[in-house]
């Protein structure tokens, strides 16, 4: 155990990697689960660091691979359920009230979003657990729309297990080169963020153009 502790402690001692390594070394599987639960609540904590590092720790014998997968998936579900309850407590009425005060949006936009979630919410929750950035955010609309909790937990568990297994196993196989995983997943996260920003810019441009045309018709 001393050898494996020393091997893991050779990884970066500062920043998120050092913090995650300390949790795993001190608490084992529950420490990895706690780190991932916090990652769900605070998305700036990157799973692409925590999960491969946990896999590396499993490869060093600090914890078993089964323990790594069990606890990280449990942490994912626990964090997601907290966000689900936040969305549920926030509720549709408050969401509509806030939406009505936002510029450049219409009530019909939110209604269409709700209709879309009613039809595709199960797929969104399952697949969203494997999409950077949306992994955490998808839990809130599920709560707002009051998706049945057992369904939400089942879909979150399955999606999280797949995502966690890929990154944990990557860290397990790559060994002391586990940081390579962070590089590639960060690229995917950046691409997703760019697509979201572009889509938002296109939406706002279209809405501004429509408003300008409406004003022009009224004044002509």
Outline the structure in words.
With 220 residues, the protein is an all-alpha fold. 83% of the residues lie in helices and 0% in strands. Helix 4 runs antiparallel to helix 5, helix 4 packs antiparallel against helix 10 and helix 6 crosses helix 9. The longest helix is centred in the C-terminal third of the chain and has 41 residues.
How do the strands and helices of this protein lay out in sequence?
Elements: H1 2-9, H2 15-27, H3 29-41, H4 47-59, H5 65-101, H6 107-128, H7 134-137, H8 139-144, H9 149-174, H10 179-219
Helix pairs in contact: 2-3, 2-4, 3-4, 3-5, 4-5, 4-9, 4-10, 5-9, 6-9
Which shape, going by the Cα principal axes? elongated
Distance between the termini: 81 Å
How many β strands by DSSP?
0
Q: Can you write the helix and strand succession as a string? A: HHHHHHHHHH
Tell me roughly what share of residues is in helical segments. over 70%
Biggest sheet features:
none
**What's the number of helices?**
10
Q: Strand-residue fraction?
A: under 5%
Mean pLDDT, all residues = 76
- List the uncertain runs: 1-10
Structural class: mainly alpha
Gyration radius from CA atoms, angstroms? 21 Å
């Amino acid at each position: 155990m001393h050898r494996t502790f020393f091997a893991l402690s050779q990884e970066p001692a500062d920043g998120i990697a050092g913090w995650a390594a300390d949790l795993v070394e001190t608490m084992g599987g529950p420490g990895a689960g706690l780190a991932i639960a916090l990652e769900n609540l605070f998305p700036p904590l990157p799973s692409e660091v925590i999960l491969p590092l946990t896999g590396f720790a499993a490869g060093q014998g600090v914890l078993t691979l089964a323990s790594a997968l069990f606890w990280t998936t449990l942490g994912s579900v626990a964090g997601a359920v907290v966000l689900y309850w936040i969305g549920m407590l926030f509720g549709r009425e408050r969401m509509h009230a806030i939406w009505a005060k936002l510029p450049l949006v219409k009530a019909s936009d939110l209604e269409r979003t709700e209709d879309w979630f009613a039809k595709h919410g199960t797929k969104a929750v399952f697949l969203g657990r494997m999409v950077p950035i949306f992994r955490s955010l998808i839990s809130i609309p599920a709560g707002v729309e009051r998706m049945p909790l057992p369904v939400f937990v089942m879909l979150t568990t399955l999606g999280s297990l797949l995502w966690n297994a890929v990154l944990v196993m990557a860290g397990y196989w790559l060994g002391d080169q586990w940081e390579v995983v962070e590089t590639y997943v960060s690229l995917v996260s950046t691409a997703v963020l760019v697509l979201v920003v572009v889509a938002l810019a296109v939406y706002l441009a279209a809405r501004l153009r429509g408003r300008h045309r409406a004003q022009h018709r009224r004044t002509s």
